[in-house]
Design goal:
Oligomer: heterodimer
CATH class of chain B: Mainly Alpha
Order of helices and strands of chain B: HHHHHHHH
Number of helices of chain A: 9
Strand content of chain A: 25-35%
Largest sheet of chain A: 6 strands, mixed
Shape of chain A: globular
Structural class of chain B: mainly alpha
Radius of gyration of chain B: 21 Å
CATH superfamily of chain B: MetI-like
Strand order of the largest sheet of chain A: 7-8-9-3-10-11
Helix content of chain B: over 70%
Distance between the termini of chain B: 58 Å
CATH architecture of chain B: Orthogonal Bundle
Order of helices and strands of chain A: EEEHEEEHEHHHEHEHEEHH
Mean pLDDT of chain B: 95
Shape of chain B: flat
Largest sheet of chain B: none
Low-confidence stretches of chain B: none
Radius of gyration of chain A: 18 Å
Number of helices of chain B: 8
Chain lengths: 253, 213
């Protein structure tokens, strides 16, 4: 199957802190991958490197066979021109832990903004698509509400609709339920599950172990800036060979 | 004795120059402040440092001194400005320095998450600023800008030191001519009316931005 994203020898540090220590992995079209692991293991940083919210220090990142960043002879990540990186990354949808909806725009305006000004869609066209997406996330009646009038779960569902409105090739979820009250987590997971059923390619950084196990084709377990295991859910949850996975699962399950 | 309506009329003539200074300052210093704020936030270091010095000098010295410097001081360097022009230039440059700082702080108050969300959707820096950051920053900027707008109407009285016949100067000369207090009272009432109008304009604008939190 066709590789959408490929990452080779990715390194990223913040000052003296070495967060990612040589990451290699790929995502194929239609794959659903969950990234799990202890806090501070580099899961979010990895996700944020994929769509250029963080700039990698070393290594290569490619999207559908085209390099966004390519390692030079010394291994340093050399990025393409900003404009090209941005246009590539607009094919990558991102959902944030803290939603990051635009507070000055209504739900509908949040969703149609980028399709209109980045993709040049007409207002009518963008609104039609936005309404279909709102129906999909179960929020048709909120189209004219402002973000402050929504619950956390509703905000996150709008954020998912907003990302989908750009018709991305892949969706990245950065701990989408971590900022939510427990009773609101289900509604967001339900929407993600619906996307999984449609075979939307996704990478989900999550602490929801049962959810990850249920929907993922592959699970990546990270610890201390490295991928410890990249395998099917059973490799992690049924026969965890690696002691670090055992320790981690004992803590969270 | 001059009657009250003559006193009022004379002081009102002074309001013309006060209001001219006011409007010219607002019209030019706000866009300038916006531009300089963007400059201060840019990655281009020399621009940043120049603007840093600029805001420090103009916020760090009295407006009164700046007025005297421009009108009485600059001629020694061969730059002669008319009284009115000296006032316009000084007020615009001085107030732009305050607006620069207000706008810079307003833009910086918008969280990193907004930039990230915009970038993840494919918006470039310019579009992110225009469509996402600045519209939100305006809401933050409005109250301190309103404050400056009220202060400015009172600061126009400083123009009297370079012998511009503004409200205050005309009031003073009426007080000495009539040997009575009316001139000052009328001047105070005029300033109160003007500040009342400005305060309410800003209240109205702030209300229009209250549709979101």
């Amino acid at each position: 199957m066709e590789e959408i994203i490929k990452v080779e020898n990715l390194h990223k540090g913040f000052g003296s802190l070495h967060v990612l220590k040589g990451i290699n992995f790929f995502v194929r079209k239609g794959e659903i991958i969950s990234v799990i692991g202890p806090s501070g293991s580099g899961k979010s940083t990895l996700l944020r490197c994929l769509n250029h919210l963080e700039v990698a220090d070393m290594g290569s990142i490619s999207f559908e066979g085209n390099y966004i960043a390519k390692a030079d002879s010394a291994g340093r990540a050399v990025y393409k021109r900003n404009k090209e990186v941005l246009s590539t990354c607009s094919n990558i949808g991102m959902v944030f832990q803290n939603f990051n909806l635009f507070p000055h725009k209504s739900v509908l305006e949040n969703i149609i903004e980028a399709p209109m000004i980045v993709k040049g869609k007409s207002k009518k066209e963008a609104e039609k698509a936005a309404e279909d997406l709102l129906a999909k996330v179960g929020l048709q009646d909120k189209r004219d509400a402002y973000p402050y009038q929504l619950s956390g779960g509703q905000k996150q569902r709008v954020a998912i609709a907003r990302a989908l409105a750009m018709e991305p090739e892949i969706m990245l979820f950065d701990e989408p339920t971590s900022a939510l009250d427990p009773e609101l987590i289900g509604e967001v997971l339900h929407v993600i599950k619906k996307l999984a059923e449609e075979r939307m390619t996704m990478i989900i950084v999550t602490h929801e172990m049962n959810f990850a196990r249920e929907i993922s084709d592959r699970i990546i377990f990270m610890d201390d800036g490295q991928i410890v295991v990249d395998g099917v859910p059973d490799d992690i949850f049924v026969n965890p060979e690696h002691p670090r996975i055992k320790t981690f699962l004992n803590k969270v399950l | 004795m001059e009657n009250l309506s003559n006193i009022t009329l004379y002081i009102l003539q002074g309001a013309v120059i006060s209001l001219k200074i006011y409007l010219i300052t607002i019209v030019f210093s706000i866009p300038l402040g916006m531009l300089f704020a963007m400059g201060k936030l840019s990655r281009f270091k020399p621009v940043k440092w120049l603007l840093e010095i600029y805001t420090w000098v103009f916020r760090g010295t009295p407006l009164l001194l700046q007025l005297l410097f421009v009108y009485f001081g600059l001629p020694y360097l061969g730059i002669e400005l008319s009284r009115e022009m000296a006032a316009y230039v000084t007020f615009v440059v001085n107030y732009a320095a305050y607006f620069t700082e207000i706008f810079r702080a307003g833009i910086q108050s918008i969280g990193r998450g907004q930039y990230e969300a915009a970038k993840a959707l494919g918006l470039n820096y310019k579009l992110t600023m225009k469509r996402i950051i600045i519209p939100q920053a305006i809401k933050v900027i409005l109250p301190p800008t309103g404050n400056e707008a009220v202060t400015l109407i009172k600061d126009t009285a400083l123009a009297s030191v370079i012998a511009l016949s503004d409200i205050l100067r005309n009031a003073k000369s009426m007080v000495s001519r009539t040997a009575s207090i009316e001139g000052y009272i009328i001047a105070a009432i005029l300033y109160l009316i003007m500040t009342f109008v400005i305060i309410n304009i800003f209240k109205y604008i702030e209300k229009r931005f209250a549709y979101y939190r």
